[in-house]
Amino acid sequence: SSQALWLVLPQNYPLYIRSVPTENELKFHYTVHTSLDVVDEKISAMGKALVDQRELYLGLLYPTEDYKVYGYVTNSKVKFVMVVDSSNTALRDNEIRSMFRKLHNSYTDIMCNPFYNPGDRIHSRAFDTMVNSMMMQVC
């Protein structure tokens, strides 16, 4: 099954991109960029309510014929976008929410690393391992 995970800065600059299989990467780029507009709309619609929360699970952003696209935003407005196969009906909303929380925790660990330069692409073996195991869980 094909899937993708993106972590994106508020300025829509990608911090981390992971696609499985890699030959679908271009299709994922288009899908994720389209979904970032939906994320921005949801954030602006929520306004101050977002500021009062530590993080925000946006749920299903939109389904296409091939994929379901889910979104999540941290309090620092970093966007997490997950793309999964539409054929995957076993995945529950609360499972996706907990995956995003796990991702958020790992992302926070990276941000706390004194050797990480904020805004740089994420190159972390621990983060990759966590993402790989999460993607295996989704298949």
Descriptive tags:
single chain, Beta-Lactamase, five-stranded antiparallel sheet, TRAPPC2L, 139 residues, 43% helix, Trafficking protein particle complex subunit 2-like protein, alpha+beta
Structural class: alpha+beta
Q: Give the overall shape.
A: globular
Strand elements, count = 5
Strand order of the largest sheet: 2-1-5-4-3
**CATH fold annotation:** Beta-Lactamase
* Assembly of the depicted chains: single chain
Percent helix range: 40-55%
Arithmetic mean pLDDT: 87
Organism: Erithacus rubecula (European robin)
Main location: cytoplasm
Pfam families: Sedlin_N
Keywords: Cytoplasm, Endoplasmic reticulum, ER-Golgi transport, Golgi apparatus, Transport
Structure in words:
Belongs to the TRAPP small subunits family. Sedlin subfamily. Pfam families: Sedlin_N (PF04628). InterPro entries: Longin-like_dom_sf, Sedlin, TRAPPC2L. The chain is of the alpha+beta class and 139 residues long. The chain has a single domain (5-138), classed as Beta-Lactamase, CATH 3.30.450.70. The chain is built from four helices and five strands, in the order E-E-H-H-E-E-E-H-H. Strands 2-1-5-4-3 form a five-stranded antiparallel β-sheet, sandwiched between helices. Helix 3 (93-112) runs antiparallel to helix 4 (125-138).
